[in-house]
Q: What sequence folds into this?
């Protein structure tokens, strides 16, 4: 309970603030609907609604503020509305025996997950290889690390369309490979930095001890540097998998994709269905949480077997 209670407290505060924000965010839409339905009469010569502050609108039309919580297409839906949409696109689909329906989030989540895992694997491999090069080569350290840092200053939203165009120019069909490359791009840097820190974690006295035993560079790497880097690696992987998921979703936005959580967000924006956007965002958050939790469980088992945790 000591670990769960703070989490539940923060969650309750977030939900409370969310509910409070719904009214001012939706008040204009609610008043427009009430006016069209004949429930609200606007006096002639009154100031246009768009020129009045949100708080003044709420004060003058307090009896209609509650309509903002039951709109079909709200600017900001309530947590309950988002939960209902999530159930409709996941649980209800499972109950109907159609979990892989293209209208459900399970199908779209699986499409996004595939590119995320491919990008995560590629980014992790490149990050580990880059870290080994940096630790063992001063030339690589002076040349590779600055470029790795500079690469993170480029907005991924600007880079994603370029990767997609270049992929199509070299004959790569489909959207899976470009999305995986974008995902790997975001995953690469945290793994690189974490592994560099981990491979340099052993103290000089430990390295000198191996030299006295006439251990080769490969033996020092396998028996000392690599085991010492494992905790740093898992920490980086948990950051990297979340970044890889973000990269995949961003990669789905400019491709005109019709499948994937990013495509659901894009379609929801194009057709003016905010609930579809919010449900896809929450599905992405749940997916990221599940992936990070899985890596955390693997970390606990691995470190326990290595004698680094109890």
A:
């Amino acid at each position: 309970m000591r670990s769960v209670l703070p989490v539940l407290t923060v969650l309750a505060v977030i939900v409370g603030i969310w509910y409070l924000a719904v009214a001012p965010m939706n008040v204009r839409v609610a008043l427009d609907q009430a006016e069209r339905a004949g429930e609200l009469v606007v006096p002639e010569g009154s100031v246009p609604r768009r020129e009045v502050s949100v708080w003044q609108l709420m004060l003058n039309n307090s009896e209609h503020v509650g309509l903002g919580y039951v709109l079909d297409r709200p600017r900001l839906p309530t947590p309950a509305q988002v939960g209902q949409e999530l159930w409709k696109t996941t649980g209800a689909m499972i109950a109907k025996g159609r979990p892989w329906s293209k209208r459900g989030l399970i199908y779209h989540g699986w499409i996004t997950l595939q590119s995320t895992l491919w990008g995560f694997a590629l980014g992790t491999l490149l990050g580990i290889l880059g870290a080994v090069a940096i630790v063992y080569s001063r030339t690589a350290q002076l040349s590779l690390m600055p470029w790795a840092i500079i690469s993170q200053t480029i907005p991924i939203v600007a880079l994603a369309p370029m990767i997609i165009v270049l992929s199509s120019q070299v004959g790569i069909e489909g959207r899976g490979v470009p999305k995986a490359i974008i995902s790997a791009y975001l995953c690469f840097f945290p793994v690189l930095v974490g592994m560099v820190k981990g491979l340099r974690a052993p103290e000089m006295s430990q390295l000198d001890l191996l030299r006295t035993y006439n251990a080769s560079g490969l033996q020092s790497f396998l028996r000392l540097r690599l085991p010492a880097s494992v905790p740093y690696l898992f920490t980086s992987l948990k950051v990297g998998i979340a970044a890889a998921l973000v990269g995949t979703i961003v990669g789905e936005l400019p491709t005109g994709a019709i499948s994937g959580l990013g495509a659901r967000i894009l379609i929801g924006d194009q057709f003016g269905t905010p609930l579809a956007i919010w449900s896809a965002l929450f599905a992405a958050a749940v997916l990221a949480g599940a992936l990070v939790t899985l890596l955390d469980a693997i970390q606990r088992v691995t470190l326990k077997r290595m004698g680094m945790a109890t």
About this structure: The chain has a mean pLDDT of 87. Residues 88 and 95 are 10 Å apart (CA to CA). The chain is about 75% helix and 0% strand. The two ends are 21 Å apart (CA to CA).
